[in-house]
Amino acid sequence: MRRRWGLGGLASGRMASGRMTSLALLVVALAAALVAVILLPRVSTADGGDQRLIHSERSLYRQVLVYEDDEEGTRCLCFTRLCAIGRQSCSYLRDPDRLVFEYTQMMLGALYLAPQPQSILIIGLGGGTLPHTLEKLLPQAEIDVVEIDPAVVRVAQQYFGFRADAHVHVIVEDGRAYVRRMLRGSRRYQLIMLDAYDSQYIPEHMLTREFLMQVRALLTPGGVVAANTFSSSRLYQNESVTYSSVFGQFYNLKSSNRVILAANGPLPSMDTVTRNSRLFVAAFRPFGLAPADVLARFSTRVDWDPHARVLTDQYSPANLLNALPR
Q1: CA–CA distance, 141 with 86 (Å, rounded to integer)
Q2: Catalytic site includes residue 97
Q3: What distance in Å separates the CA atoms of residue 225 and residue 93, rounded to the nearest whole number?
Q4: Catalytic residue among 69, 149, 174, 195
Q5: Following CA atoms 68, 69, 72, 74 in sequence, which dihedral angle do they give, to the nearest 10 degrees?
Q6: pTM, 2 dp
Q7: How far apart are CA 291 and CA 216, in angstroms?
Q8: Among candidate residues 202, 207, 214, 217, the one with its CA nearest the CA of residue 243
Q9: Ordered domains of the chain (ranges, CATH)
Q10: Which residues pair with 229 in a beta bridge?
Q11: Which of 59, 128, 187, 191 is deepest in the core (most CB within 10 A)?
């Protein structure tokens, strides 16, 4: 006997079928999520870490990647897969104020030359470590951060807690173009920090004597520039004589990176630097930093060939020279 379905029976059948389909989809979704957690990409980085990729995008300028290292407890920004050229910025997940890298600690050595700058320019945002730290140390200072890549700004906000506010301003623009534009006006800075990197090294047009002369012109009298470079770059000789040609004697702080500290005027003496460093004993403590550790890296010793060729807009072979030996 053929069974007839009334409307109620048809509806019940569809409902049962729908529940089974929904259940099946839920099971598939849960399984996929579990697989995704288990199989999240993990990579070994250039400095030996084992990291999990949590964000990846291709911007107009570069790859922008964010990794987490569960063992180290860090989240890091990189511009190359496997962080092959090193990590651009990192923060400790449980203690975001604590500084991960020695180079950021050395950059703060600029405060030993000028302890209370009220106008600060930072070229290169990264994860926002420098503006975040400086705002906490100098809450009344006006901090302008120039970053060419909108994707880096978004990632700094989303993954590293960076926020612009009444004292910290973000300008999306090429750093050299911004410096040139500001020179047409009256704004000048007491501290300028150069921390711009692409996937390989400092952009070529920010390595030259012409650019550094513009930077010096944007400083107030006695203003300080801090520049993050590599201590083992094949451009080390050329960079050093280029900075010397513009600023004269400078302080050279070295670890895996090299930080140059120079002044728009006479370089403060080591006695002055030492005295100023003591002002930050308590202020540096929340960042896991002892002023004496940074002070120990200050040197004016010339460890480069003073006859090396100065980098200019006409002679800046960065792409050829900056790569580390492989």
Answers
A1: 31
A2: no
A3: 30
A4: 195
A5: -10
A6: 0.83
A7: 26
A8: 207
A9: 49-92 (no CATH), 102-321 (3.40.50.150)
A10: 258
A11: 128
